[in-house]
């Protein structure tokens, strides 16, 4: 009874703080109409001069685009996202009200539903003809309090701002997209572990695929690491040689749980993007009986840094950047950080710099092609 009372007290305190910071947003990336100041350098250039199209493959455990969990398995689709010609790195341009204008805002230009086989074949087709690191895929796993639209736009924004030349893939789970829905979101993330593991398995078996990079934010970092841990237990620790960079942005992840996950994944290339200014993770720690979250360590504290590095992961310090009072979405809202992400996942690899992804076209028949003519009936011998 006392434990229940303490739990209610923690949740009440959490609700008070979250209500105070509600106007500052949740775990999705920045959605503002006024652009940030221009930056220069790789991945941090100011407004781009022309519109850009990003095609994003989507695997979803949501029911449609809602926050409810799907009851009939994973849904797949291919979305075409338009970025405006005035797009600034680190920003998802959205209207303050009314319909989006393609000249100024992110827009969905089209969505095509796919079944599981079509998803696999279409991805192989997109990879075909690509060379070197352009054969890679980037799997983005969003965090707590993130709507389907926000996750879809963030995937396109990060891929564009990081100058990723491969194929971006969004794995979206049934976040309620509600500020006070932390516990229900954790349950939804837990229920999606097998689906994400199956996606990793499918990607590793896709013809011509290069490296499979993972960018996971907040609660999505726990989900991604759990799915990779399950793959490791199943004997596919490095996804059959295809696992690339695993980047955990502000991971809402218990330090002891992270240690058990890393014990299965080592020597995977895992990087923790952490900040000592992340107030959202400080609140998450309070809800979790003050247990330290991996993303809330102090990267400038040698003890904290060694604690993560001793597990086999690297640390990237986000503390000098910020996206407001909460500082929980710095990975996607700061051009310099996006540049670093881009530099990691686009660096040429000497061992496959000349490899080209080629698929056997005969395995993917054209559904619009006419049926083959029937074979002639053989003439019986006289």
State the helicity in percent bands.
25-40%
- So what's the CATH class? Alpha Beta
- Classified in CATH, the superfamily is Alpha/Beta hydrolase fold, catalytic domain
Oligomer: single chain
- Strand order of the biggest β-sheet: 3-2-1-5-4-6-7-8-9
Per CATH, what is the topology? Rossmann fold
- On the 0 to 100 scale, the average pLDDT is 83
The profile of the biggest β sheet is: 9 strands, mixed
pLDDT < 50 stretches = 1-26, 28-45, 361-369
How large, in whole angstroms, is the Cα Rg?
Answer: 22 Å
Return the string of H and E elements: HEEEHEHEHHEHEHEHHEHH
Principal-axes geometry comes out as globular
- From the N-terminal CA to the C-terminal CA, the straight-line distance is 95 Å
- Number of strand elements: 9
| Second rung of CATH, namely the architecture | 3-Layer(aba) Sandwich
Number of H- or I-type helical stretches: 11
> In percent terms, what proportion of residues is strand?
15-25%
Structural class: alpha/beta
Domain count: 1
